[in-house]
Write a structure and sequence with these properties.
By secondary structure, this protein is an alpha/beta fold. It folds into 2 domains: 5-9 and 24-53 and 292-401, Lyase, Ornithine Decarboxylase, Chain A, domain 1 (Beta Barrel); 54-290, Alanine racemase (TIM Barrel, Alpha-Beta Barrel). It has helices spanning 36-43, 54-67, 82-90, 101-110, 125-134, 145-155, 186-199, 216-233, 258-272, 287-290; strands at 5-8, 22-23, 26-27, 49-52, 71-75, 95-98, 115-118, 139-142, 162-166, 202-206, 239-241, 280-283, 294-304, 307-310, 330-333, 343-349, 358-366, 374-377, 396-401.
């Protein structure tokens, strides 16, 4: 039986992993890991249980790396759990998009030879110095003159600098529009590219069409805009970074197949002619790589009508189920008797004393769900761990590696090898 390890929401990146299931040769064979129901039966967990599927994570990484016509940078903020990073590395990910000193340090500790890219457009001076001088990071994004000057000053004007102008892309059909906080207008980007070319060894354009993007053509429109900006600037572009936003399935959402996004990007990039001049393509997937690779098992503590009080919530791993209104696939785990065949939708309350700790759902479960039952919620590899807090003292969770298939699968990912 696989060992369960405690993990706290307080400084999760600094807690050492003990008894990990991945050796130096890669992810353990799937058949050597338990099923979730076996873990629940053996341990009857009263803390939230994070069920990590290393085989699913590695397979998702392999599918994306094989399909994308360039370099794949995993967005570490999406899930920085070391076991997740090891699984993605096993699947072929060798580049990492970091946005903080802690993320940079974590990747360097796990994979000293990995390519680390600091793609947060606004950074502290100490963060830039530490990344450049201590961690060997050479690539930085920016979206204004002041940040460019800061990067140049803090890296000391040494050789090897890579600078990436963050461009505001055209609007797209996404869950989150990420252009409000960061990004230069096309006119400003033209000037920034010229300034960057004068001081950097490598120059690129990056953008982010928005999280959970449902339009393959959104990437084509953004690539066309980036090409127009590059042409107007007269600057040779070494890298075009199409960012993240690649979607996954949820109970009420089935995105276009992954191949549709890859084809749209490849065709749009070919139309620019940038590749003929030696320009590389990058992508920064997060959710697309890790969402199906982790699920959460919670326990029902109380039932009130069609509302279940569970031991995790919006201040824990279910932040996206709160105000953003994400619905997650759900199944009941009951050990002592069979569940009702009738299904109904439930809302959840989390364990804190805050009435805002509510998840509307609906989460479809057997109608006789009751105190003491467990519920598995899928698609929580993305942001489920990284957004946890210690509010009200509910910061404990347990982590186990399992061999179950994901509760939902996204079109275009080859997970055939992940049979339980």
């Amino acid at each position: 039986m696989s060992e369960l390890r405690h993990r706290s929401a307080v400084s999760p990146l600094r807690r050492p992993m003990v008894g990990r299931q991945a050796d130096r040769r890669g992810i353990r064979a799937n058949q050597r890991l338990p099923l979730i129901d076996e873990v629940v039966r053996a341990h009857r967990p009263e803390d939230p249980l994070h069920c990590l599927r290393p085989g699913v994570l590695a397979a998702a990484a392999r599918s994306f790396v094989a399909g994308f016509p360039g370099d794949v940078l995993y967005a570490v903020k999406c899930n920085p759990e070391p076991a997740v990073l090891r699984a993605l590395h096993s699947g072929g990910v060798r580049h990492f998009d970091c946005a903080s000193p802690a993320e940079v340090r974590l990747v360097r500790q796990l994979f000293p030879e990995a390519e680390v890219h600091y793609m947060h457009p606004v950074k502290g001076r100490a963060a830039i110095r530490g990344a450049w001088f201590d961690q060997g990071v050479r690539d930085f994004s920016f979206d204004c003159v002041e940040e460019l000057e800061k990067i140049v000053q803090e890296t000391g004007g040494e050789a090897g600098l890579g600078l990436f102008v963050r461009l505001v892309p055209p609007k797209a059909n996404t869950m989150y529009d990420l252009s409000g906080k960061f990004g230069a207008t096309p006119a400003a980007a033209v000037d920034l590219l010229r300034r960057a070319r004068a001081v950097a060894e490598r120059v690129g354009i990056c953008f982010h069409v928005g999280s959970q993007c449902m339009e393959p053509d959104a990437y084509a429109r953004a690539i066309a805009l980036a090409d127009a900006v590059a042409r107007e600037s007269g600057v040779r572009i070494d890298v075009l970074d199409v960012g993240g936003g690649f979607p996954v399935s949820y109970p009420d959402v089935t995105p276009p197949p992954l191949g549709d996004f890859m084809a749209a990007i490849a065709d749009a990039f070919a139309a620019t002619g940038l590749g003929d001049a030696g320009c590389r393509l990058w992508a920064e997937p997060g959710r697309a790589l890790v969402a199906p690779g982790v699920s959460l098992v919670v326990q029902v503590q109380h039932r009130r009508g069609d509302t279940l009080f569970v031991n995790d919530g919006v201040y824990g791993s279910l932040s996206d189920a709160g105000a953003p209104g994400f619905r997650f696939p759900a199944r009941l785990i009951r050990l002592d008797r069979s569940a009702s065949g009738e299904q109904q939708g439930f809302s959840f309350y989390g364990p804190t004393c805050d009435s805002a700790d509510r998840m509307q759902g609906p989460f479809v479960l057997p109608a006789d769900a009751a105190e003491g039952d467990w519920i598995e919620l899928g698609q929580l590899g993305a942001y489920g761990s990284s957004l946890r807090t210690a509010f009200n003292g509910f910061d404990q969770a347990r982590l186990v590696e399992v061999r179950d298939r994901p509760l939902l699968e996204t079109p275009g990912y080859d997970l055939i090898a992940v049979a339980a």
